[in-house]
Structure formats: structure tokens, C-alpha cells
Automatic annotation (TrEMBL):
One of its GO terms (biological process) is tetrahydrofolate interconversion. Substrate binds at residue 69. One of its GO terms (molecular function) is ATP binding. It catalyses: (6S)-5-formyl-5,6,7,8-tetrahydrofolate + ATP = (6R)-5,10-methenyltetrahydrofolate + ADP + phosphate. The keyword Coiled coil does not apply. It comes from the Bacteria. This is 5-formyltetrahydrofolate cyclo-ligase. The lineage of its organism: Bacteria, Pseudomonadati, Pseudomonadota, Alphaproteobacteria, Kordiimonadales.
């Protein structure tokens, strides 16, 4: 795990986040390709009980991966087999929440801001029942650090009944997470080692 001295000494949570973002990006980028692939496959197994809890026709928000993010597309075949519908985030407004549009393997995508790929207006927009969220770092309370756009916090503030789980490599767990009033904790974080629930760890599911 990376040393945390740099960000724990920062003056405000905002500047501490800037320092932690840098460390977390470097740590995630250093994971070998083979490890990433194995982790995504193992994580799919741990996702099964969560997806099983949804009823047929339920919707699941994923993301098209950027940089070294854990690849959520591994979940698409399972989502399909369970009769669920996947959706991807769309940035509609730089300071607004994300919306989610239905996506299935093979559907066309367009370039979005920040190097994202997103479905077009022809794909129906949905409010997901379950959301899998990318992150740079998370803590044992399941607070997350993202790229700093605030998109997921704004989105979760508006989606009152969604269950949101981070997807991360276990190496992305940090001891101390700078926290601001708008930060919303996730219901859990799925890693290659299992599901981390706030305050607990269940390696078997
Ligand atoms: N895969 C993925 N999709 C996503 C997100 C995400 O974090 N990951 N988002 C999460 O909010 C939303 C898009 N917001 C984003 C905000 C900043 C950056 C980002 O890469 N920032 C770079 C600078 C890139 C640039 O300016 O061109 C950086 O901080 O290094 C990415 C996505 C919706 N879709
Ligand atoms: N619910 C909200 N309402 C209004 N503004 C918000 C809200 N949540 C976050 N923001 C804004 O977004 C900015 C960035 O937030 P933060 O640094 O927590 O982003 P992040 O969680 O790392 O990014 P992302 O969710 O895009 O991956 C905050 O400084 C704040 O101005």
C-alpha cells in the first residue's frame, strides 16, 4: 500500500484529495496486465450474489473503463444471462449528475468527454437498480475517491433507491480517506478478494 504521509499532511480535504489521486493513479497503473485480467474474472464470481438479488428486468449501471480501471465489462455476459439490463453513464452537463443509457454488447457508442465512450440518445435512459462505480481509492467505510468531477456524488444524491458498489483492485484500499460533506459512501466495494462492506470484510462472497 502507498505511503499516506503526503495527503494526511495536506491542509484541507480538497488538497488532500489531489495528493491521494496522484498516488492512487500511480499505484493502479503499476498493476500488471495479467493481474488486472485475473482480478476482473475473479470479481465477476463475487458479483453473482449481488446480481442474483435483482429481479428479472432489473437494471445495472456499469462503466466503459478508462486508464487502469477495473474492467466492468466482464459483468456483461452474467447480466445478460440473469435477464438483467446493463446501462452506461452519460455526461450531459459538466456540473450535473450522470444519466444512464441502456447498453448491450455490440451496441454503438460515441466519444464522450474525458475520453469516455457513451451510448447515444437512441438508447433508452434508465435509473439503475444497482450501480457499479469506478474509483481511484476507497476506505474501510466504503467512501470513494474518483477523478474529481463530483459526477458520482451528484448522481447518488439524486438516485435515492439505488444500491451502489465500487469496483476496485484490493490494492486500492487506503487507511485514510479525505472526506468532504458532499461525499456519499458506497453500499460496498467489490474487489478480486470479495465484497467489502462498510466496517466489515467478507472474503467469501
Ligand atoms: N470509466 C469511467 N467512466 C466515467 C467516469 C469514470 O470515472 N470512469 N466518470 C466519473 O465521474 C464520469 C465521467 N467523468 C470523468 C471525469 C474525469 C475523468 C478524467 O479522466 N480525468 C482525467 C483528465 C482527463 C482529461 O481532462 O481529458 C484526470 O483527472 O486524470 C474521467 C471521467 C462518467 N463516466
Ligand atoms: N451533491 C453535490 N452537489 C453539488 N456539487 C457536488 C456534489 N457532489 C460533489 N460536488 C462537486 O464536485 C466536486 C468534486 O467532488 P469530489 O472531489 O468528491 O469528486 P470525485 O468523487 O473524486 O469525482 P467523480 O465522482 O467524478 O469520480 C466537489 O468539490 C463539489 O464541488
Amino acid at each position: 500500500m502507498a505511503t499516506q504521509s503526503q495527503h494526511t499532511m495536506a491542509a484541507t480535504p480538497k488538497t488532500a484529495k489531489v495528493a491521494l489521486r496522484k498516488q492512487a493513479k500511480a499505484l493502479r497503473a503499476a498493476l500488471p496486465e495479467r493481474y488486472r485480467l485475473d482480478a476482473a474474472e475473479r470479481l465477476s464470481g463475487h458479483a453473482r450474489p449481488l446480481l442474483d438479488s435483482l429481479t428479472q428486468g432489473g437494471t445495472v449501471g456499469l462503466y466503459w473503463p478508462l486508464d487502469g480501471e477495473l474492467d466492468s465489462r466482464f459483468l456483461l455476459p452474467l447480466i445478460d444471462r440473469l435477464g438483467l439490463t446493463a446501462a452506461l453513464p452519460v455526461v450531459t452537463d459538466r456540473d450535473g449528475p450522470l444519466i444512464f443509457r441502456v447498453f448491450a454488447l455490440g451496441d454503438p457508442l460515441k466519444d464522450g468527454p474525458f475520453g469516455t465512450r457513451q451510448p447515444g440518445a437512441e438508447a433508452p435512459s434508465v435509473e439503475p437498480d444497482m450501480l457499479f462505480v469506478p474509483l481511484l481509492a476507497f476506505d474501510a467505510g466504503c467512501y470513494r475517491l474518483g477523478y474529481g468531477g463530483g459526477y458520482y456524488d451528484r448522481t447518488l444524491a439524486g438516485f435515492t433507491s439505488v444500491r451502489a458498489f465500487g469496483l476496485a483492485f484490493s490494492a486500492q484500499l487506503v487507511d485514510i480517506m479525505p472526506r468532504e460533506p458532499h461525499d456519499i459512501p458506497l453500499h460496498g466495494v467489490l474487489t478480486e478478494e470479495g465484497l467489502v462492506l462498510p466496517g466489515h470484510r467478507h472474503p467469501d462472497i
